[in-house]
């Protein structure tokens, strides 16, 4: 069994992969204050819930955009599982060429998402990841990243909305019942949703105009499910794309 760990700014997503399939996924809030023992206990408890023990672990791969958490989580892997994890980053074989101005600046999560997109769907593709930030990367037919866009995620925009206003409440981010909202909560949900969806569709259209070639649009990230089925410009919603990409990267680097 392969353990995949996606450390994001808001959540840590654990995936247990066996035979190319995902046997279980779990989310932990990302907190720099957690010790390696705390992360280790959570990890082993989730493994037990999926029916696994320490002896079942063949390898561990970590993809992180939060350096402060890396030391504790890596230490938890070594202490509780007895495995040195593979860290997605420079020197790791990914099968993805990075043709941007500063390749080293590309986030490990984007690299893993690209690897997942190529392994599952092939190129060319536009991969949109809805997290704390919403990111877009374009992959050419050969699997090279040649361009991208970064913007505020819908939850980040929502936090700014109710965090900077005295009378607007915190609301659930969800698909609204109608654009014809008649109360504060519905008005906020409709505004957040349609503003974000409009931005997504505009960015996709601009990529199509600039590239003038067909490509598949693949959406991932926890908040991506909010828009699933609501735009004919989105071809696929795959919530496990980054985990699949890490599994593909691990296979390329296993000894």
From TrEMBL:
GO molecular function: ATP binding; metal ion binding; pantothenate kinase activity
Active site: 109
UniProt GO cellular component terms: cytoplasm
Binding annotation for substrate: 107-110, 184
GO biological process assignments: coenzyme A biosynthetic process
Alphabetized Gene3D superfamilies for the sequence: 3.30.420.40
Named cofactor requirement(s): K(+); NH4(+)
Protein name stated in the entry: Type III pantothenate kinase
The gene coding this protein: coaX
């Amino acid at each position: 069994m392969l353990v995949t760990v996606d450390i994001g700014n808001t959540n840590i997503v654990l995936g247990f992969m066996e035979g190319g399939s995902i046997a279980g996924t779990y989310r932990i809030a990302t907190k720099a204050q957690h010790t390696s023992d705390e992360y280790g206990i959570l990890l082993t408890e989730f493994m037990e819930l999926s029916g696994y023990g320490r002896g079942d672990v063949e390898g561990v791969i970590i993809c992180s955009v939060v350096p402060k958490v890396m030391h504790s989580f890596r230490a938890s892997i070594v202490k509780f599982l007895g495995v040195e994890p593979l860290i997605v980053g420079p020197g790791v074989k990914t099968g993805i060429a990075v043709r941007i101005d500063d390749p080293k600046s590309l986030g490990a999560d984007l690299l893993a998402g690209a690897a997942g997109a190529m392994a599952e769907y092939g190129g060319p593709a536009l991969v949109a990841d809805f997290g704390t930030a919403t990111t877009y990367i374009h992959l050419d037919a050969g699997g090279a990243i040649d361009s991208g866009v970064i913007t505020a995620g819908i939850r980040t925009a929502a936090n700014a909305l109710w965090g900077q206003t005295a009378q607007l409440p915190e609301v659930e981010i969800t698909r609204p019942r109608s654009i014809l909202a008649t109360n504060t909560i519905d008005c906020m949900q409709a505004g957040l949703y349609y503003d974000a969806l409009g931005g997504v569709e505009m960015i996709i259209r601009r990529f199509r105009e600039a590239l003038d070639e067909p490509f598949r649009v693949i959406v991932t990230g926890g908040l991506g499910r909010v828009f699933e089925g609501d735009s004919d410009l989105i071809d696929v919603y795959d919530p496990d794309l980054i985990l699949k990409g890490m599994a593909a990267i691990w296979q390329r680097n296993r000894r």
